[in-house]
């Protein structure tokens, strides 16, 4: 009696039907892209927090805001959200004061500039998170499709043989289950990373919003004091 060929993960993948192989390829590519985004986003949030701390320390050190504005204007760091907010708000404040706009109009302009800057920072922080959410939510279903297709193909093949044995259907069912396993392998890290990064994004954005409110309050006092900004 001839022994059945040994089944391995590699042999099952290579022997899978074209549809199941296509499903596996899609899931592997999704997983690779997810991990690339996970590593990149992790670095982005770590850098955003560090730069926020650095700029807040400079801002609250009592330095003159005009000098600080000149410094960040000469060597801007566009990765620093707090710096971008300060630059947008203070430059708009100076522009409107030079035009002799009244205090109310000045603060309305500053508020608009800060809202726009916050929206830009939110877009930067949340970039590529929808892809992780999509991978996390759809990968199990894509893998399930490959599983269903593989099992269906196995039973179709089973109907064509005279003697049905486990050795006949086992390879088809096994390769089908591999598609589900790959789907879960792609989905689980994506879901965990999305939840973590969404929380990190909310935390950093909350920090930016607090900074914007504090900057607006300082500029509001300066605008209504009727004098030029010298410090805070």
TrEMBL record:
One of its GO terms (cellular component) is plasma membrane. Keywords: Cell cycle, Cell division, Cell inner membrane, Cell membrane, Membrane, Transmembrane, Transmembrane helix. InterPro entries: ExbB/TolQ_transport, MotA_ExbB_proton_chnl, Tol-Pal_TolQ. It comes from the Bacteria. The keyword Cytoplasm does not apply. It is a multi-pass membrane protein. GO terms for biological process: bacteriocin transport; cell division; protein import. Residues 79-209 form the MotA/TolQ/ExbB proton channel domain. The chain crosses the membrane at residues 20-39, 173-194. The keyword Cell membrane applies. Its main location: membrane. It is found in: Cell inner membrane; Cell membrane. The Tol-Pal system is composed of five core proteins: the inner membrane proteins TolA, TolQ and TolR, the periplasmic protein TolB and the outer membrane protein Pal. They form a network linking the inner and outer membranes and the peptidoglycan layer. Part of the Tol-Pal system, which plays a role in outer membrane invagination during cell division and is important for maintaining outer membrane integrity. HAMAP family: TolQ. NCBIfam families: tolQ (TIGR02796). This is Tol-Pal system protein TolQ.
């Amino acid at each position: 009696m001839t022994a059945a060929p040994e089944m391995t993960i590699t042999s099952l993948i290579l022997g899978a039907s074209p549809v199941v192989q296509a499903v596996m390829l899609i899931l592997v590519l999704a997983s690779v892209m997810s991990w690339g985004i996970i590593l990149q986003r992790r670095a982005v949030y770590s850098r955003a927090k560090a730069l926020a701390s650095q700029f807040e320390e400079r801002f609250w050190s009592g330095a003159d805001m005009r000098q600080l504005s000149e410094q960040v204007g000469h060597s801007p760091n566009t990765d620093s959200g707090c710096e971008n907010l300060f630059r947008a708000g203070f430059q708009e404040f100076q522009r409107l004061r030079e035009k002799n706009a009244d205090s109310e109009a000045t603060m309305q302009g500053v508020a608009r500039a800060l809202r726009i800057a916050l929206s830009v920072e939110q877009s930067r922080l949340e970039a590529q998170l929808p892809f992780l959410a999509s991978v996390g939510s759809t990968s199990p279903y894509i893998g399930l499709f490959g599983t269903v297709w593989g099992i269906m193909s196995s039973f179709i093949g089973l109907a064509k043989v005279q003697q049905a044995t486990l050795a006949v259907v086992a390879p088809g069912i096994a390769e089908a289950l591999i598609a589900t396993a790959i789907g879960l392998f792609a989905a689980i890290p994506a879901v965990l990373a999305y939840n973590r990064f969404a929380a990190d994004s909310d935390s950093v954005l909350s920090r930016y919003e607090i900074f914007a409110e504090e900057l607006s309050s300082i500029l509001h006092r300066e605008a209504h004091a009727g004098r030029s900004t010298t410090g805070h």
